[in-house]
Each structure stands twice: as structure tokens, then as C-alpha cells.
Amino acid sequence: MASEVLEYYQRGGERDRLAVGFGPLEFLRTWDILERVLPLAPATVLDVGGATGVYAEPLTRAGYRVHVLDPVASQVAVAAQRPGVTAAVADARALPVIAGRADAVLLLGPLYHLLDRADRVTAWHEAARAVRPAGVVVGAIISRFATLFDGFIQDFYRDPGYRPVVEGALADGRHRNTEPGRQWFTSAYFHHPDELQAEVADAGLTLRRRVAVEGPLWLMGHRRVEVMADAHRRELWLTMMRRVEEDPSLLGATSHLLVVAEKCRTPLVDSPT
């Protein structure tokens, strides 16, 4: 893990992210999608890059058996304190698990911070190794264009250093934030939606769905807040998003995408780890 990424999470970058700003929008939709694509409880879920267990805890409340693996020890300590959750320090590219032990594997973070394609394919492959044949692997990715739009939403372009970061992300997907004290997201890889099928296939998985998480609503400022604050409008938004969430024309306009893949029925060889 790059030093600036580790520092970002060690200082609590993930602690409250899903509770403020765009976070509730992302969490609500991610949870809505997981409820529809995960096997029924009490399935075993391996939450790779699960951070402080923000998804692991509600999954255990829903009856799942959840084990969090994350490279940041301070986050693992928080996750391990959540009721019913077990957690350990690990790297997504070398999971300390026996092949086929999980019914589902979540990669809701690692793919952001593996800037080299080979590392991302390795993470996908390790998830495929860990899950049972015909099991589900769900990966979260950030859209190639998210940093461009986010700069206007949060006025990051006022800093002259921001535009070069955006230009770099647009050119090759690599968003590099190596200077301490910058307000924007730490170094990450931002996927183009069209990259996903080949990346997943190279890991021995079959792509089943590419799903827009927030859709364009994340761009709508105070309107987004109003929708989230009103139960009726929030439910209507969820209902309508389900109708269009896989439309290819929306995949570049969302901030995050979920990639739902399935392991082929031919078992993969266990790794020495």
C-alpha cells in the first residue's frame, strides 16, 4: 500500500465517510444492491478491504457469517469489535484463506488502490480462489470521470494543483494525490466501465452485472440532500434506480459502480498462502 494511502486511512479517512456528504447515498444504494445479489443468509461472506466493518455489521445482523480482511491494522481493530464480526490484517492480493471457503467475496475498496492492472487482476483472482464454485464476487470501483465532476461539486479546482490530478486520471485512470494536507481523495485508480469485463475475465471470473451505484443524483447538490432526507422520495429514488442501474449510458455518470461476477464451476488451484 502506498504511504499516502496508508496515512489517509490511518488518520480515519474511512471512519465517517459513509455517514456524511455523498456517503449515505453510496451506502444506501450499495446495500440495496447487495441485498439482491448475495446468496441467502446464513452464507459466509469474506469482506476484503472491509475497513471498519461498516457493511460487515449490518450483514451479520441480517444473518450472514462475515470475516473482514483489511491491510490497515487500526481499521481491523474497529471491525473486530462489531457484534458477530471477525477480522484480520491481510492484503487483497494474498488472502490467508483456504480455497472455496466463502459463499461470497466483497471487494468494496481494494480495487481503488491497486494502480497497476496486474495487481487488480491478482485481487480478483484471489477473490475467485476464496469463493466456492458458482459463488459471487462483488467489486466496487470508482468511475474514471468522478474526480472531474467532484472538483466542481466541492470546488477543488480553486487549488491549482487539482487540475493536473484530474488530467492524469482522465489519461490513464491514475489519480495521484501524494502531497499531505490535500483535501481530495488519496491516490487511487479510477476505472473506465469498458475495462471491467476483461479485468474480471483475466481472473477466471464471469462478469454478470455492471451496476451504477449513485447514478447522476450525486451531482445534484442540495437536491440530493432533500431526496435522502425524505423517506418517500428516497424509496422512490431506489425504485427508479433499480430500473436503470445497468443501462450502459449511466455508467460513466455515476461516482461508483458495483461489478457482480461469478466464479466458474471448475475449482481454482489454492495458493501457497
From TrEMBL:
Keyword line: Methyltransferase, Transferase
Transferase recorded as keyword: yes
GO molecular-function term, one example from the UniProt record: methyltransferase activity
CDD domains cross-referenced by the UniProt entry: AdoMet_MTases (cd02440)
SUPFAM superfamilies: S-adenosyl-L-methionine-dependent methyltransferases
Single Gene Ontology BP annotation: methylation
Xref: InterPro entries: Methyltransf_25, SAM-dependent_MTases_sf
Coiled coil segments of this chain: none
Sequence ranges assigned to domain Methyltransferase in this UniProt record: 45-135
Protein name: Methyltransferase
